[in-house]
Each structure stands twice: as C-alpha cells, then as structure tokens.
C-alpha cells in the first residue's frame, strides 16, 4: 500500500469501518477486508488527533460486534483479534473499550495464541504480531485489573504448549515478557497461576519440550524474588517435593 496522507487514511478507515458494520458473509471477502483494516490500523500513530479518533470510531464499534468476536471461522477471529490488538496499541495506555468488552477482547486475543505452533497457518503471522503487541504495550496488565485470572492461566498454558524451537526469537521473548509482567504486576499470585509453570518444570516430564522448559525457567528466574513465597505455597498445595522439579525451582525457593 502506497503512503497515505492522514486525510486519506482517515477516509479509508471510516469506509472500512462502515463496511465492517455489516460484514460480508463470504470468507473470501471478509478475510481480505480484515487484512486491509489491519494494514490501515498499523499506519495510525499512538494518541491520534481528534479527526483520526472520529475516523476510527465506526471500526472500533464494528470489530467488537458479537458476530465477529464469536465468528465460527478461526482465521476471522484471529483477523479480528489482530485488528483489535492494533487498536489497543493506538489507545495505549488507555483501554479502548469498557471492561466487559475488554474481557471479550482478551478472550479473543488469548485464544489466538492457542495455535502459535502451526507456522503453516494463514494466521500465523497475525498471531505472532498480536503476541508482540501485547508484550510491547503491556496490555496484559489490563487483564490483571479486570481480574481475568482464568484467562491469564489459559494464556500461560497456551504459551508453554505452543512455543517451539523453530519460532523466531521475538516469539519466545514476547512470551517471556508477558509472563514476567503478569507475575511482577500481580498483587497476589495464586498456586493456579503457577501450576502451568511448575508442571512444565517437573522432572522427567517427557511431554514437555525443552524450549517450553527454558521459557518457564526464564520466567521464574526473572521474577525470583517476587515468586519465592508463592512457589513455596504452590508446592505445598500440590503436596510436592522440591526434588520433583527442575533445579531452577530449588534455587529460587532455597535462596
């Protein structure tokens, strides 16, 4: 897409938003429309002018319509999540929607991380971009404010299940950043939140990939001081011995 003036960008965003208010039923039309919208949104700077905010308004409304957020097609949902992720970047540090809508948004974003392992998917690049954006604009911290505890656990599980050695370094780094941020910014860390990490670090767990173990270890090391008392509690709640876990757990707890 050639460079656009602000006015042209505003006009295109308004038109795209109006198109999406009554989205095409055909995937062959809807998916390219979402691709186009994502590209347009990527050109919008943070804290835009009032005229740009007005141009974004129909689009922001359309993107969180139930028929899109709960669309049966996975690629559509990831496309929508990718567009909304751009919106969160544009409005950061403020949330673009009210609390209930933001919960829907985060559910969509978290579900988009589920298949990050599949690099052949049409949506792989979008999933990776969403991940990077969440890490960069720290939108995961809003999840804590909204008390999306179960969603955060699901996100941790998705990361640890889907990280692969063939992923670009930025994917690993973004996951590490998000998980560390969530732990550091949490007022209280439940055993449930630590369980996916501890399960990954269990000795002789052959189902766990070494790269997932590396991610879990890195996150624990990053937040060692914060995690120490919570790790002890989590191990007690699991009735588990330190010997059952990777050395990094022992080192953090024993310090």
UniProtKB/TrEMBL annotation:
GO terms for cellular component: chromatin; nucleus. It is found in: Nucleus. The keyword Coiled coil does not apply. It holds the Pfam family PDS5. Its main location: nucleus. It comes from the Eukaryota. One of its GO terms (biological process) is homologous recombination. Keywords: Cell cycle, Cell division, DNA damage, DNA repair, Mitosis, Nucleus. This is Sister chromatid cohesion protein PDS5. It comes from Sesamum radiatum.
């Amino acid at each position: 897409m050639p460079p656009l003036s602000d006015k042209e960008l505003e006009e295109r965003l308004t038109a795209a938003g109006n198109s999406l208010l009554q989205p095409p039923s055909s995937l062959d039309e809807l998916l390219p429309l979402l691709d186009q919208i994502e590209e347009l949104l990527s050109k919008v700077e943070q804290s835009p002018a009032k005229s740009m905010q007005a141009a974004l308004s129909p689009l922001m409304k359309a993107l969180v319509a139930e028929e899109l957020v709960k669309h049966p097609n996975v690629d559509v949902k990831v496309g929508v999540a990718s567009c909304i992720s751009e919106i969160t970047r544009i409005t950061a540090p403020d949330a673009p929607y009210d609390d209930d809508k933001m919960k829907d948004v985060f559910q969509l974003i978290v579900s988009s991380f589920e298949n990050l392992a599949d690099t052949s998917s049409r949506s792989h690049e979008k999933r990776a971009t969403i991940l990077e954006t969440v890490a960069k604009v720290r939108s995961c911290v809003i999840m804590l404010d909204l008390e999306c505890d179960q969603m955060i656990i699901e996100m941790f599980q998705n990361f640890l299940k889907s990280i692969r050695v063939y992923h670009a370094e930025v994917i690993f780094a973004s996951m590490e950043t998000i998980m560390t941020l969530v732990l550091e910014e949490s007022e209280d860390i439940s055993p449930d939140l630590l369980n996916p990490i501890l399960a990954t670090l269990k000795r002789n767990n052959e189902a766990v990939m070494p790269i997932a173990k590396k991610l879990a270890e890195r996150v624990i090391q990053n937040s060692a001081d914060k995690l120490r008392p919570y790790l002890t509690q989590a191990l007690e709640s699991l009735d588990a011995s330190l010997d059952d876990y990777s050395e990094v757990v022992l080192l953090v707890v024993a310090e």
